[in-house]
Design a protein that fits this description.
heterotrimer; A mainly alpha (about 325); B alpha/beta (about 325); C mainly alpha (about 325); A: about 325 residues; mainly alpha; two-stranded antiparallel ribbon; globular; B: alpha/beta; eight-stranded mixed beta sheet; six-stranded mixed beta sheet; 14 strands; about 45% helix; elongated
Chain lengths: ~325, ~325, ~325
């Protein structure tokens, strides 16, 4: 019973997901196909990468949040393509994307840890800065010229599973779970989220951990930028628009407490897949897209309310 | 409240999935750049009329924001639903291209309408007018009204919209080639919101006291630009113009804050799109000149570029605007 | 209530510097027409940021304020187009806003969901409602009844400006002359302790959401008056702008510190910069970059200045 209560959000998400699938299976069995699976996974890729990073930052508490993730995705993609057209060899494209993401995320982290500024405010500023720069540097135009090998990587499939999902998202998930569950980092992150001061007193290098987490979030956003390049074939300065809201929705829906210390990556991933499945299902049953934003917003509120009231009862 | 109820009802009806009848009647879909704007709603209405005339099923669905990934997901879901022909008003040409192969593999047809992906190998592009024609027309009309030595500001929507940027490019080319004394200012980008457009237009007027006209390039910027001229009390001094639908511009044309707007009939474009989809499904090749039901004049097709051209855009003014409703 | 004279003086100084620089480089900047335009473009943001100041002083962030304004504007626009009497039209906006604020407040306070999360959800829901309410047709070229009212210049300033001043004065009085202000900041400082002290935490929090909602509704009236249209994207970016202005103004998020004057100046500085940069020929795409850079610069310089003075004081002591 306790296990259920601890994983209530996860259980609820999975139940919702199964319910959704059952509903589809009854009403429109054609939708359940390998192809839909491909589509769901492909469209989860960028959101999953960004949400994992954001989830870790929020988990670690200290009012941690990163509103700039969408801006990091756009700016990393744009800067990497600009570097390539300035003569950088194309094979460095993935490394460069991740590197730029790391730097941009690190800037957030430095401001948060060294200057002790509120993450929400810092990342609101860098959100404007990064997404504005991506647009201003390109004048809004998409930068073409992604090499063919990268395209195959972004659009290819292994069976029904898209290559970027197989080669990037799954390893990242495994690695993140391994680190969080298998090393001291997981305990540290949760301890920091529960009580920053106590964590510091018990000898956890709080600032360093937090800085690394912001860097990781930036790096993952850079990786997402590379996926967007390989998938779309061009760097779009607005590719990350609204991504921060979607990722935040996934993180919170996945049961991570906004104050930190409670929740886990499995919940976040379950939420990512639920959101993307819901969107795909709504689309494929021909429901007006207007309902998507409302449905996901409502889902967020209802899930949190349900969680809250079931907790207070138990 | 009534409208809300009506909207809810129409949505409910629209949500009914492609019925069993979809198996025998061919289906044509149109994916706009975003939904909820009058322009694409008019195209939807035209598409519905064509669907009724031609006996096809018409599906209209698009993203809530002009987001290329969302659009991609919608096109994929339409392919998965087995729609026979899908027309897309393309947001991102490079992203749409790979889907053509998917479509071909399953026997569906993917083509473009309203906004093109020229190098993707799409079978046909249903064009409202050429980008060049649109750019030229607005400059020519403006010069006719404010003179060839005027100073003109430009307020566009999303900086990332390639079709809007193409029009601006042709405006500049036209001014350079034909009217050396015409001064076109750097375009300003308002994003999608009307308040930003108004703010930019009012800043432009303040920055250039000798400004003669402002062109609202995106239809979402029209009300903002016209309103800014009106609020600044510059009616008669600064002329608003743009690519706006008559319903959006009506009050402003009458008040004089907009001198004229240029637009094709989006309803006719929607009709032509569905008609073209039907031709493609039937395997009927396009001819140089095509008779389309309800169209007064035949529609030209350029086999070399694969463009089906709706025809010249209209110029709406205070005098004729009441004859139109879209 | 700490009087944030430092930040307010800095902001006023920054505004003055910006005005001087822009006026000397762009002659058009200082014209009466342009200065009125800057004020006029600040109207809705001033009202929304006023409500946001209260929320943030209480430790809550509302990202749905823009669409709440949009929803009110939609109702106002429909009422105006439908020919309702002016009094009713004026009432609808704040009333609708207050009702929406009540809903948000109940979800946040009774449901115990952090405000930023709940309003993120509401943002999505309200956007859908606006879409459905408009039904694909924009409201455009609405009657100019409200326009004439808001821009009516019969007294010493446009009526709109007086209304904004009045709203600020009313809130300031409530903060200063009633226990509300102290309680609000106490909750912002430490909610649990405020509850232990016996403050009516629930009532105060809900009331603040209602006030903010009503101000968003009032902003809806200004929006319809000035722009005379309602489109589906209405208010999409305004929440972040309001948050930026409040932070610039020195209201401490989660810190129980609140400055109305700071917020007023913060909004003004944002709008002056946007206007002045464009007048100096900087493309509009750079404006967001400047907004972000300014926000970070203010925050960083404040911390650095604080540390410098701290270390100087330490040195003096030894």
């Amino acid at each position: 019973m306790k296990a259920l209560r601890d994983n209530l959000v996860l259980a609820m998400l999975i139940a919702l997901w199964v319910g959704l699938l059952a509903l589809i299976a009854v009403t429109q069995p054609d939708i359940l196909s390998a192809r839909t699976l491909t589509s769901v996974l492909q469209f989860s890729t960028i959101l999953a990468l960004v949400s994992i990073g954001l989830g870790l930052v929020v988990l670690a508490g200290g009012a941690g949040i990163d509103l700039s993730v969408g801006g990091v995705v756009s700016l990393s993609a744009v800067l990497a393509m600009l570097a390539q057209s300035a003569g950088m060899p194309a094979q460095f494209l993935p490394v460069l994307c991740i590197g730029i993401g790391l730097v941009l995320g690190g800037f957030n982290g430095l401001l948060v840890t060294r200057l002790a500024l509120y993450p929400l405010i810092v990342t609101l500023g860098t959100f404007y800065l990064y997404s504005g720069l991506a647009l201003a540097l390109t004048g809004g135009a998409a930068l073409a010229g992604v090499p063919d090998w990268a395209l195959a990587f972004g659009r290819g499939k292994w069976g029904p599973i898209p290559l970027p999902f197989l080669t990037l998202v799954i390893p990242v998930i495994l690695l993140a779970l391994l680190i969080v569950l298998g090393t001291a980092w997981g305990t540290w992150i949760l301890a920091m989220g529960n009580d920053d001061r106590a964590a510091h007193l018990s000898g956890i290098p709080v600032d360093r951990v937090r800085l690394v987490l912001y860097c990781v979030t930036g790096g993952l956003a850079g990786l997402a930028a590379f996926v967007s390049l390989a998938w779309l074939g061009s760097a779009r300065p607005n590719i990350g628009v609204n991504l921060e809201l979607e990722a935040l929705t996934a993180v919170l829906l996945g049961g991570v407490a906004i104050t930190g210390g409670r929740g886990g990556l499995t919940g976040v991933l379950a939420a990512v897949f639920l959101v993307v499945t819901l969107k795909t299902a709504l689309l494929q049953s021909g429901i007006n897209t207007v309902w998507q934003t409302g449905a996901i917003g409502l889902l967020l509120i209802v899930a949190l309310l349900a969680n809250r009231f079931s907790l207070s009862k138990g | 409240m009534k409208t809300l109820a009506k909207a809810l009802m129409t949505t409910a009806i629209m949500t009914l999935p492609l019925a069993a009848s979809a198996q025998d009647t061919p289906s044509v879909a149109f994916v706009p750049q975003l939904i909820g704007i009058p322009y694409f709603n008019a195209m939807e209405a035209g598409g519905n009329a064509a669907a009724e005339d031609l006996g096809v099923e018409f599906v209209y669905t698009g993203p809530v924001d002009a987001n290329p990934l969302d659009q991609l997901q919608i096109v994929e879901s339409l392919l998965a639903r087995g729609v026979d022909a899908i027309a897309v008003s393309v947001l991102d040409a490079s992203a749409i291209a790979p889907l053509l192969a998917t479509a071909e593999a399953q026997g569906s047809i993917l083509f473009t309408s309203d906004s093109d992906a020229a190098d993707s190998g799409r079978p046909v592009y249903v064009a409202q007018a050429t980008d060049e024609g649109l750019g030229n027309q607005i400059i020519d009309q403006l010069v006719e009204r404010v003179g060839a030595d005027a100073k003109i500001g430009i307020v566009s929507g999303e900086a990332t919209a390639s079709n809007l940027n193409a029009w601006i490019g042709f405006m500049n080319a036209r001014a350079e080639a034909e009217y050396p004394d015409l001064e076109l200012l750097e375009p300003q980008f308002a994003g999608g919101t009307a308040e930003r457009a108004a703010q930019l237009a009012s800043d432009l007027m303040a920055a250039n006291s000798d400004l003669d006209a402002i062109i609202a390039v995106a239809s979402s910027t029209c009300p903002g630009v016209a309103q800014a001229i009106e609020t600044a009390g510059k009616i008669g001094e600064v002329m608003g113009a743009g690519y706006c639908s008559p319903n959006t511009a009506r009050e402003y044309l009458k008040s004089g804050s907009m001198g004229f707007t240029v637009l094709w009939d989006p309803g006719a474009l929607g009709y032509l799109t569905v008609w073209a989809g039907k031709q493609l499904i039937d395997g009927t090749p396009f001819e140089a000149m095509n008779e389309v039901p309800t169209f007064a004049a035949p529609v030209p097709y350029d086999a070399e570029t694969g463009i089906l051209l709706l025809g010249d855009p209209f110029v709406f003014t205070a005098e004729n605007v009441d004859n139109f409703d879209f | 209530m700490t009087l944030q004279l430092g930040r307010e003086a800095t902001l006023a100084f920054a505004c003055a510097c910006a005005v001087l620089i822009f006026a000397s480089f762009a002659p058009a900047f200082g014209t009466a027409g342009n200065l009125t335009a800057i004020l006029r473009n600040s109207y809705e943001l001033w009202l929304i940021a006023l409500g946001m100041t209260l929320l943030m002083a209480m430790g809550a962030i509302d990202v749905s304020v823009g669409v709440v304004m949009g929803l009110s504007a939609l109702l106002i626009g429909k009422a105006l187009a439908g020919g309702l009497p002016l009094g009713a039209v004026l009432l609808i906006g704040p009333l609708a806003g207050a009702c929406i604020g009540l809903v948000a407040g109940l979800i946040v306070v009774i449901g115990q969901i952090p405000a930023i999360v709940a309003t993120l959800g509401l943002f999505g829901v309200f956007r859908t409602v606006i879409f459905l309410g408009l039904g694909g047709q924009w409201l455009s070229g609405l009657p100019d009844t409200l326009t004439r009212l808001i821009l009516w210049d019969g007294l010493f300033a446009p009526l709109g400006l007086l209304v904004i001043a009045g709203a600020n004065l009313a809130v300031w009085t409530a903060l200063r002359a009633t226990p509300y202000g102290v309680h609000l900041l106490a909750i912002g400082n430490d909610e649990a302790r405020a509850r232990l002290m016996g403050l009516a935490v629930i009532r105060i929090r809900i009331a603040t959401f209602v006030i903010s909602g009503a101000l968003c509704g009032l902003a809806g009236i200004f929006y319809v008056a000035i722009y005379r249209n309602v489109t589906t994207t209405i208010g999409a970016n305004i929440a972040l702008e309001a948050i930026a202005a409040v932070i610039l103004g020195g209201t401490a998020i989660f810190g129980g510190r609140c400055s109305l004057l700071g917020t007023l100046l913060g909004v003004l500085l944002l709008r002056i910069l946007q206007n002045g940069l464009l007048l100096m020929g900087v493309p509009s795409l750079w404006q967001t970059v400047v907004t972000g850079g300014l926000l970070l610069a203010v925050l960083i310089s404040e911390v650095v200045a604080g540390r410098l003075s701290l270390s100087r004081r330490r040195r003096q002591r030894t």
